[in-house]
């Protein structure tokens, strides 16, 4: 059975993005890139909310034909272009980016169907609004968080209005030279 995993960069004070939805505060370097590539290698289908999906679909297809992009970026662009992408949205009905499935309702039922399919894990990339909904429905099996050494003070919270207690066990903690700590938790 596939798992639903949340992969999110988080500030020390618990924000997934700044007040402008920006991510420029993430301590992204080659060490963190290698760590993220390890997580991507476990992905059968990336899962997005509408806003994150629109960012991804507006960016990655352009990387494929850009001669100035490095080979790692192009390799990721080829992967994300070919893989089945899943987007959850109440408003979006169709998607132009190839290999995209749009799900509008019956979230828990649809996720459970996807978990039953063979293959690698389903991984939510960022998408804090979607993550909040999935947490409330108790659908997330594992949390892969990178805690960044920055205090934003405000922004989009990684965890918001969460009412249900969820016990987690630490699978692995990975400290980086930049001060980032990668935390991998599984639901008990």
How does this model look, in words?
- The protein is α/β, with parallel strands linked by helices and 188 residues long.
- Helices cover 30% and strands 29% of the residues.
- It is built from 5 helices and 10 strands; from the N terminus they run ββαβααββαβαββββ.
- The chain has helices at residues 30-40, 50-64, 71-82, 107-116, 128-136, and strands at 4-11, 15-17, 43-49, 85-88, 100-103, 121-125, 142-148, 156-157, 168-175, 181-187.
- It has an 8-stranded mixed sheet. A two-stranded antiparallel sheet has the order 2-8.
- The longest helix is centred in the N-terminal third of the chain and has 15 residues, at 50-64.
Question: What tags apply to this protein structure?
Answer:
two-stranded antiparallel sheet; alpha/beta; globular; 5 helices; 8-stranded mixed β-sheet; 188 residues
Task: List strands and helices in order, with pairings.
Blueprint: E1 4-11, E2 15-17, H1 30-40, E3 43-49, H2 50-64, H3 71-82, E4 85-88, E5 100-103, H4 107-116, E6 121-125, H5 128-136, E7 142-148, E8 156-157, E9 168-175, E10 181-187
Parallel strand pairs: 1-6, 1-7, 3-4, 3-6, 4-5
Antiparallel strand pairs: 2-8, 7-10, 9-10
Helix pairs in contact: 2-3
Unreliable spans: none
Shape: globular
Name the helicity range.
25-40%
Largest sheet: 8 strands, mixed
- Radius of gyration, Cα only, in angstroms? 16 Å
Number of strands: 10
Query: How big a fraction of the residues is strand?
Result: 25-35%
Instruction: Sketch the topology as an H/E string, one letter per element.
Output: EEHEHHEEHEHEEEE
CA-CA gap between termini: 16 Å
């Amino acid at each position: 059975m596939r798992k639903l995993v949340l992969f999110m960069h988080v500030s020390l004070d618990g924000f997934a993005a700044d007040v402008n939805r920006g991510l420029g505060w993430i301590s992204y370097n080659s060490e963190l890139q290698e760590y993220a590539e390890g997580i991507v290698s476990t992905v059968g289908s990336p899962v997005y909310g509408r806003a994150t999906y629109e960012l991804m679909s507006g960016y990655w297809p352009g990387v494929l034909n850009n001669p100035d992009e490095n080979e790692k970026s192009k390799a990721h662009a080829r992967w994300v272009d070919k893989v089945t992408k899943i987007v959850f949205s109440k408003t979006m009905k169709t998607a132009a980016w190839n290999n995209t499935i749009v799900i509008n309702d019956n979230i828990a039922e649809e996720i459970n169907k996807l978990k039953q399919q063979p293959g690698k894990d389903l991984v939510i990339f960022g998408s804090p609004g979607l993550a909040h909904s999935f947490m409330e429905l108790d659908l997330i099996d594992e949390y892969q968080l990178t805690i960044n050494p920055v205090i934003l003070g405000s922004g989009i919270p990684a965890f918001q209005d969460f009412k249900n207690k969820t016990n987690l066990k630490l699978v692995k903690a990975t400290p980086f030279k930049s001060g980032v700590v990668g935390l991998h938790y599984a639901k008990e």
